[in-house]
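S., here's the first fold you wanted:
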Amino acid sequence: MKIRINGDSLRLRLSQTEVRDLVRDGIVRSACQFPQGEFLYQLAIHDADKITAEVQHSTINVYVPRPWVAGWDEDERIGLDSRESNGLYILVEKDFQCLKPRPQEDETDLFPHPQADEANHQC
């Protein structure tokens, strides 16, 4: 799972396995090791009507409504989003392979890019 924070915007991008795990197990987690300790971020299903987020200690917790996740691993929906009352915009989306291959990145578990066929025909 990738995380991007830009101002009041939080974006999580999930691989195919992570989307399946979220649908099946209700949670996915990632960590980044720093010399001073671990920074964690996780996405979990909850029983609310919108996506929410909170920070506790060195963990960002993002919660997505159960009905929003149902079937997400098998349908064409790309992203799920909402805005907190304080203005924080939260986007959870499927991570796609790049249209131009990047040899330094392993994209084998990412979703096929929806425009990949169009890009190949334009070459």
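And the second, which I think is the more interesting of the pair:
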Amino acid sequence: MTVTVAILGRPNVGKSTLFNRLIGQKLALVDDQPGVTRDRREGHAQIADIEFQVFDTAGFDEAKRGSLEDRMSDQAAEAARLSDHIFFVIDARTGVTPVDRMFAERIRKLGKPVTVLANKSETKAVQQQVHEAYMLGFGEPFPISGEHGEGLEHIYGVVKPLVLKDRAANPTVEEEEIQEPFNPDIEAPDRHDKPLRLAIIGQPNAGKSTLVNSMLGEERMLTGPEAGITRDAIANDWEWSGRKIKLWDTAGIRRKGKVKEKLEKLSVHDALRAVKFAEVVVVLVDASFSIEKQDLTLCDLVGREGRAIVLALSKWDLVEDKNAALRKVNEIMEDILPDIRGISIVTLSAKQGRGEDRLMKAVLEADRKWNIRISTGKFNRWLEEAIQRNPPPAPSARRIKIRYGTQVNARPPTFALFGNQLDKLPQSYQRYLMNGLRETLKLDGTPIRFVFRGSNNPFDDGKR
């Protein structure tokens, strides 16, 4: 068991800035605009010799029942329910506001121990406002600055007794190893015991958060008819059929020309960062509308990043002519994305709970192909047959020679080709080899990379 702390307060008091400071990285989006955070985010915090879990939340807000703001407040209340302690954050520059007092009463009803943190206390001029926080009835308020890292000793003093009590109550529990960010350039031959990193991306309102909630079996992510609800890329620990999964929900990614506001740019950047850390990426498409160029652009982006891809058609229950729709998607994929042929296409309806098992089977199969290793002998037998069927071209009356090849890496499968004039090998011939490799060695839908290396002449002394 690990001590968990929830950060609560009204919007724009610096909760996410404090969260980033505690976990030691800029994981949560931060902006001067109030209400940036919507979903609750969990992170691993460390101060000196203590470690604990911390929730960043949207905080509480006055809102009409059922509205987006009200649903955000419900997420904050759920974080408080799951926590051992609450940090109630106020803005020391403005002092205690009527909204703070109202939320203090709401927090009091949660029945959790509370510590008031007066954020933005960089100067001594705010001391009077800090002392005002005594009126909230939660004991001594502590001045801190999440942005500048000041006052962390107060947080340490509050949390350390909780950590020591937890250690005493669970003496046999070993501290969980903190996993390093996934590096695709470092191969791990056996990662089955490690969580599969799975990101779900798509355009706004494609149903990503609804799908994540359905997979997790709880209302973990905010959902609703409003487009663009999700802003942060949120990672969730999950398990499917005994396989551990690190599941990312991400913000919708619109066409680049349509993204104008700074906050949306930050959200899109966060989503693309999740793609870089993922191993498999599900591109979710709203099947109730026709597939758009932006959907294919996202598939191409994932392919260029070298990640395994699965295309999922959401809201399939709303499609009338399902056969015609599926046939059209297959045709478009073959025509517009020839470099990543054979991507698995899965239909699903998250609201009805249909198709999720098929999706996860496709995800695990994509991951298997992405990690595949092919022996040098098997690869060269295939390569020899492919060259005999269709020899490389001969630019300037001098034929390009591919002598042999070998797989030099997985994740994605990467092959080195040795020969002469390989720098002149046209894209069309490279595509011929890639598609033949996918078809013969069952690597359909997997990004494949070639690297070219010249043949070294052992009798060449290097003088020429």
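Why I say that: Residues 376-454 form a domain with the GMP Synthetase; Chain A, domain 3 fold (CATH 3.30.300.20). The first strand starts at residue 4 and ends at 8.

Talk tomorrow,
H.
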